[in-house]
Amino acid sequence: MEQSGIGILKSDFTYDPEQVPIKAGSLIFTGSYRGHPGFNALLLKDSQGNNVVGKDGQAESIFMATIPENGNIGEISQGTWIYWIDVDNLDMNALPDTVRAELYRVNNMETNEGQRLTSDTFGIALPATIPSIELTGAQTAEDKSI
To answer: The pTM is what?
Structure first.
């Protein structure tokens, strides 16, 4: 997964066989990160600083990467984050005009204690028609034709 993107998920995406897949039709945001995924946290914000979430006030995110050959997870130099609003909680009419991602480093991966901003993006305008996006184990491919 090397590209960043925004899209409606084309088909279910299983990122962990022991977890419920991300459902087709969910709104997906992707980007990149580096460092230990367990000590990173992600928030997606609108132009007013409000969290971008679904009808139930929830959204989910995961951090994915290839483990370095030496096995040191803290040395991940190129990982991908995925943030999504489940299709069952998605209200397309309530989406903001722009979004920006904020990545945080935390001291405690279970409580997010010590959360501090490490990077963020400029506001990105959501397209009038959100394209479909296909997530695979190796890449993120966007289909701009939809």
So the answer is: 0.80
